[in-house]
Amino acid sequence: MSFLNFNREKSANNAAVRIIRKLPASVQPYKRTQTFTRTTTPQGFLKKHATRAGVWALLCVEKGQLEYVITQSGYARRTFLHVGESAVVAPEHQHYVSPSNSCEFHMVYYR
């Protein structure tokens, strides 16, 4: 499984949108969701939301393609994840997903 690796990227107005590179070494997994498809993805995942304080997540694509969007300070950073790729979701970072028709993915939560 590969991780999506980004540092800081600049948006159109030069405001930094921080993309987290990897999970902190101090966190441990505590929950894994079921595998979701386009039709079974919870409605809350499709709208802007955030994990709670202290809760990290790993978004894992099993099949197809998943659009992962991080929103910060009114700007968005879109990333397309493919089979075998993962992305880190930092605590309290606003984000949402949009799965392709053939997408299957799950989340693993850490604290």
Discrete helix count = 1
Strand content: over 45%
What's the level 1 CATH class? Mainly Beta
- Average of pLDDT: 87
Question: What is the H/E order?
Answer: EEEEEHEEEEEE
Fraction of residues in helix: under 10%
CATH homologous superfamily annotation = Jelly Rolls
Radius of gyration: 13 Å
Structural category is mainly beta
Largest sheet, in brief, is: 6 strands, mixed
**What is the CATH architecture descriptor?**
Sandwich
Outline the low-pLDDT stretches: 1-15
Count of individual domains: 1
- The count of DSSP E runs of length 2 or more, i.e. the number of strands, is 11
Can I get a quick summary?
The chain is 4% helix and 50% strand.
Model description:
The radius of gyration is 13 Å and the shape is globular. The longest helix has 4 residues, at 43-46. It has one helix spanning 43-46; strands spanning 2-3, 8-10, 16-18, 29-32, 36-37, 56-63, 65-72, 75-82, 85-89, 94-99, 104-110. It has a single domain (2-110), classed as Jelly Rolls. With 111 residues, it is mainly β. It has 1 helix and 11 strands, in the order βββββαββββββ. Mean pLDDT is 87; it is low at 1-15. The two termini are 21 Å apart. Strands 1, 4, 5, 6, 9 and 11 form a 6-stranded mixed β-sheet that branches. The protein has a 3-stranded antiparallel β-sheet with strand order 8-7-10. Strands 2-3 form a two-stranded antiparallel sheet.
